[in-house]
């Protein structure tokens, strides 16, 4: 296969949760493949956008947005298109985790996690797809699910997170089928334990327990997810939609 099938040159991409962690690293990787990138995050990603532009020579912008608010999401998608031009690609990745026993979870706790991780993924995908339809363009989406949407891992207790990520996996399949005739592909990645700000604050005994359970013997890095996202967003994957690539150092295989 020709190398350039993985090129994203000239494509305009939106990355949610792009201020740090997986989103930031994948945004760099998309830019390395030639994509212009709009970083959408609750936090200001201006500095990250500037770094990406100067490192990779692409156009970037940073938009502050809470993905749980459809009006803010619509503004962010419109803002990204106003800065970069018509949009092609979405890495729909913003998420939060809550470690709390289910018996102690308040309605607010559960709702907050599902709101960001599942509702937010839907609102962003919907706004992006509406933009594509308005523009009469094809496009494609990668949602960040998690291996926790498939398996239940001990010792941490995170029922709200696990349920939200299972929802993302099935939402991905549902949108892939519903939007197939619009030329919009929708896929997911399901990371295992990845070293980011999100996992950096967990208890040391949990970290050691996780590492002991991973056949690879270590956590992954965000950069080890980037190739799968590039593949799914590129013309190398034109017949792939509704797929979920698990990237977990074999955690869920054993
Ligand atoms: P992170 O906490 O380092 O980064 C998450 C980013 O999302 C932050 O920049 C944050 O500001 C942003 N964000 C959170 N809530 C938001 C909201 N309401 N609106 C807009 N932006 C919001 O986390 P990460 O480890 O980079 O995780 C990224 C994604 O990967 C998440 O969906 C997470 O669930 C998923 N994931 C992470 C791991 C892991 O081990 N790190 C494993 C599986 C899945």
TrEMBL record:
Q: Name one GO biological process term.
A: carbohydrate metabolic process
- Protein's recorded name: Short-chain dehydrogenase
What SUPFAM superfamilies does the entry give?
NAD(P)-binding Rossmann-fold domains (SSF51735)
Q: Which residue numbers delimit the Ketoreductase domain?
A: 11-213
Family from the record: Belongs to the short-chain dehydrogenases/reductases (SDR) family.
> Which keywords does this Swiss-Prot/TrEMBL entry list?
NADP, Oxidoreductase
The protein's matches in Pfam families, at most eight in alphabetical order, are given as: adh_short_C2 (PF13561)
- GO MF annotation list: oxidoreductase activity, acting on the CH-OH group of donors, NAD or NADP as acceptor
